What does this fold into?
Amino acid sequence: IERQWLRLKFIFWNEIMKILLLGATGFLGQSVNRHLKQKKLDVVRSSLSLGTDLLDSNATQKLFDSVQPSHVINCAAYVGGIQFVSKYKADVFSNNLMMSLNILTACKNSSVKRLVNPISNCAYPKHLTLFQEKDFWNGSMHESVAAYGISKRALTIAADSYYKQYGLEVINIV
It folds into this structure.
């Protein structure tokens, strides 16, 4: 998390911003929230447990319209342990993909300057022991995490597409 924080610090350095933190009550979101609060940044927290279902495109857009964030950090995910992902493969894949598309669309429809997506290293190929960006697409993921990992790989393609078509700046931190 410290390395990710350093990258975020560089990304957001000296900008006046209002940050929408999605997935703020989850494992990663709680940690990111603590770091942002320590830096006294203007953060609005959101998660399913706080009342916003990112699987609902209308609810997602309503959240963005209400908050009017300049920056979004997307820590939201539909995930559990390896057994959860193995048992609910279709739900894990489709729910994560749907949330990602709803978030990207809401960013595009709003005045969001930048979207940051932390992505788990399980999206890397299964044969790797050293994770380097150049190897991200060089092989398949481990079957136990493929449904989740593929949805996060798809997010990187969607992010690139939204940048090229709409100019939405998206940073994927794996």
